[in-house]
Amino acid sequence: MRLEVIACTPEDAAAAERGGADRIEWIADPGVGGVTPDLSHAAEMRRAVQVPIRVMVRPRGGGFVYSEDEQETMRRDIRRISAAGGLDVVTGVLTPEGTVDESALAGLLNAGPGLAFTFHRAFDEAVDLRRALDTLSVYPQVTDVLTSGGAPGAPEGAAVLAELLRRSAGRPPRILAGAGLTADNLRPFLDATGADRIHIGSAARFGSDPSAPIDPERVRTIRRILEASAGLL
Known about the structure:
Strand order of the largest sheet: 1-2-3-4-5-6-7-8
Radius of gyration: 16 Å
Number of strands: 8
Largest sheet: 8 strands, parallel, barrel
Number of helices: 8
């Protein structure tokens, strides 16, 4: 069982790690689903925790079809992330037709050779999730796909997520289930899907408020549910 927690600051990241997070997703502006954070703080973020950090590379909120200028900004940011060391990437790009933009994706991957990538919830806006997963499986650098199964939240997308998990079994990318998961709905979700990689945001924060600090005890509770589901408790 792996637990990834969204963090916006070094303090967030440290609190998530204390609670039992296995990995941090570093973003800014969670209100729009996350954008690229201030990369001048990369060293500070890296010093804050021992667990891996993946950095959101998204130049704006809104859709996931990007102009060439926006793609160049993304490539530049990935080069900065690569130069900083000890960080990986979260990103995603689509064509106007709703397929994975392989040309844009290749440019992003090439900007960070050796980095691991999560393809984020742009995936959920693809017209055919199964085809999108098959497309991403061609790229070894894409190790994870963050998805709610195409639904507003992962609990509503449980049936599709279970299918995607079966489809990806034994080969990358791995499915990282996220959106709308809480301590209250996590156990039935795990039972329904067999998911073993979980991503949480607001559920890790005081009062489930996306603008509040991370509460290590909330992360610890979710960690315990994951371990109980895996038979480790």
